[in-house]
Structure formats: structure tokens, C-alpha cells
Amino acid sequence: MMKKENKTAKMEMSSDLGTEAVTAISEDLRHLLADVFALYLKTKNFHWHMKGPHFRDYHLLLDEQATQIFAMSDDVAERSRKLGATTLRSIGDIARNQRLKDNDKAGLSPKEMLSDLCNDTQKLIGFLRSTHEVCDKHGDVATASLIEVWIDEAERRHWFLAETVGGME
Fold this sequence. Notes:
With 169 residues, the chain is mainly α. 72% of the residues lie in helices and 0% in strands. The chain has one domain: Ferritin (Up-down Bundle). It is built from five helices and no strands.
């Protein structure tokens, strides 16, 4: 007879940070991962539906940004697992944990698309900074170090989006 998986099983501690720290940090990482997936999919959505005279430039910009955002997802999830916690398991799990809003509207202009991504990227930077503070509070220098790189990358993406949107008519 097979045993049922205990869904309330305690985390296996593979970190010396302690249960409170792992719980707080992994909860923030779960939200970050959901936001990263939401931003990735929104970026790909706009990449696929871009139109207009600057199509090629915007299409390539969004493809580059989506690749970078997606690459971040594995690092976020693996960091949570290294701490001994679990991470997202499904699309539904992403939806329950994301803070960035989806955009399913059809017929958006390039400016609307890029502005939406610019705003979400700025929000993601804020979420990253907040998670960095949680890591600092608990002495998790490894996660904080990764977050510093992610902040720098997100700031670059935001800069490109903001400059592009600012130059549009």
C-alpha cells in the first residue's frame, strides 16, 4: 500500500539560517518567482503581438528582455530549494502568488505595451529591494548577493524601456 504524501510536512533544513529566516526568505522568493513568470509571459505576449513601424526593434528588445527574465526564474527557484524550502509547482500556484497584474487586452499600441512593461519592471525592482531587506535582516548574504545582480539587470531593462517609451510620439 502506498503512503500518501504529507502536504503539511515540515521543511528539511539545509541551511544554517534557522526556520524563521528560511520561512521568511522563501516566502518572498515564492512571490518573486511568480512575478518573474508573470513578467516573462507578459513580455512574450507583447513580443508576439507587437506591430508598427518600429516592430523589429521592439520585437528584438522584448525577446532579449524575456530571455533574461526567464533565466532569472531558475535561479530564484533553486535558491529557495537550497535553503530547504519548496517553490512554485503550477500555473495556479503562480497566479496565487503573483503581485504583478496580467494584461490580456488586445490591440494595445507599442507605447501602451512598453509602458506597461516599464511600470512592472519598476515594481519588480521594488519587490527585489524588499526581499533584499528580508535577507539582510536574517543574514542571508548568498540570496542578497543574487538579488543585487537581479536588481542591476532589472534596472537596465527598465532604463531601456523608459528611454524607448520617452522617445515615442
